[in-house]
Amino acid sequence: MTTDLEALGQAIKRAQYRNHRAMDAALREIGVSLVQWDALRAVERMPGASGHELAVATFQSDQAFGTLANRLLDRGLITRSAGHGRRLDHALTEAGQAALAEGRQLAVGVLEDLFAPLEESQRAQLLRVLRDLTAGAC
Fold first, then answer.
1. Which tens digit of pLDDT belongs to each residue from 75-106?
2. What's CA 114's distance to the chain center, in Å?
3. What pTM value is reported for the model?
4. What share of the chain is helix, strand, coil (3-state, %, to 5)?
5. Residues whose CB falls within 8 Å of the CB of residue 96, separated by 6 or more in sequence, listed in order
6. Which residues contact 23 (CB under 8 A, 6 or more apart)?
7. How many CB atoms lie under 10 A from the CB of residue 35?
8. In 3D, which of 54, 40, 48 has the Cα closest to residue 95?
C-alpha cells in the first residue's frame, strides 16, 4: 500500500501549526511572539550574523527579518553594529537574553504537552525521521 503523501504533508503541517499556536500563546505571557523568540534564538546561536543569515535561519525573507529586527531593536532586545561593508551584525542585549531564558522555561512545558501522546522511543524515532527528511535543506 502506498502512503498518501498529501495526507502526510497535511499531518506535518497540522503538527507544526499546533506547535506554533501553543508556543505563541505561552510566549505572550512574557510579551514576545514565537517569531520574535525564534529570532532571539537565532541571534544567540549565530552571534555577529548578518540580517540575511538570520533571515535564512528563521525561514523569513530578508525584508521580513529586517522589519522584525527593527522591532526587536526598538524593544531593546537586540543590538546592531557595523560589520564588514554594508553588513549589520546582530547581538542580544541583557533584556533579549532574559526574554530568551524566560521563553525557554515556558517552551519546556509546551513541548512536553505537545509530545505527551508519544512514548520516548517514538519521539526519538520521529526526530531521526525528520532529520533525515530535512538533511541538506537550507
1. 999 998 877 777 778 999 999 999 999 999 99
2. 16
3. 0.86
4. 70, 5, 25
5. 40, 43, 72, 76, 77, 78
6. 34, 37, 107, 110
7. 17
8. 40
